[in-house]
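Quick one before lunch.
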Amino acid sequence: KESLQIYDLKSSAWAIETVDGQDVISGLTQNPKSLPPQYFYDDRGSQFFEQICELPEYYPTRTEAWILRQFSHEIAKMTGACELIELGSGSSTKTRLLLDAYQALGNKLRYVPIDVSGGILTESACDLLQDYPSLKIQGLVGTYEQALAQLKPTSLPSRMIFFLGSSLGNLTPQKCDRFFSQILAALDMGEYFLLGVDLQKPKQILEAAYNDARGVTAQFNLNMLEHLNQRFAGNFDIQRFEHWAFYNNRLNQIEMHLRCLETHTVCLEKLDLTVEFKARETIETEISRKFNLEVIQRELQVKGFKPLAVWTDPQEWFGLILSQK
Ligand code: AVJ
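Model of the N,N,N-trimethyl-histidine complex:
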């Protein structure tokens, strides 16, 4: 179909140069052990994440959607016609609120979803085309880094890169700084960056969101090991690990780990890697930083973004920041 193109950056010559799985090797041979959170999102992991977004304890998705529902028309008016480029698009559910607003401007609708999970990207792109007949989609399957380096100029007056759901929280301050540089490098002068961030709030609300009663977050966390088994011919036994998540007050971040229940050895054949696990040893799978709106705005400004507007919900649980290069 003319209106849908999907490029798999993982299989492009450029992507092959970066040896696949090096990040897993370095994470599992360090002390303490860690794994990069993008390994959550195989097709099954993306489905678990969609379920998390519907959980009563997991407030970020519905709070951000509320903000978008209130203010997407204001956002569209501020930027004017834009190509919409989404990092970590997943199911593109919240994106529809932006598409509605940009459609109302009466210009051409162009959407560039970027995700590491090709399954969910293709599926949601097809759903969107059903509901937005004039939409043109060019999807990119790959990491943010791969995709940002491949963005093309647009025939529309401008572009807006948007990064919702507080996925920024997965990055340490140092990686966050590098990421902002990559965004700046990908944008031309006058183009836009829309960022959704989860805000600091009482610990019990945060911890409940990552320890849901139904145990979906635990399944999501453990699924990373199944993904590694699939991808690298591994023999992780998820029965020998448990989900562990808590709020670190000092660093203002949720930390998610997998805790090993008994001493044993795991092999990942395709990585030529053997790893010893001790009982009670942990693998850090994710940090999810919680932000202060003023502080993150200042950081954007120091980096060279012009802050244009901030929106939040009545409880100030989540924030949306529009800035311009
Ligand atoms: C998609 C990274 C924003 O940190 O809240 C949800 C992922 N992890 N439950 C988050 C996640 C556990 C989510 N982000």
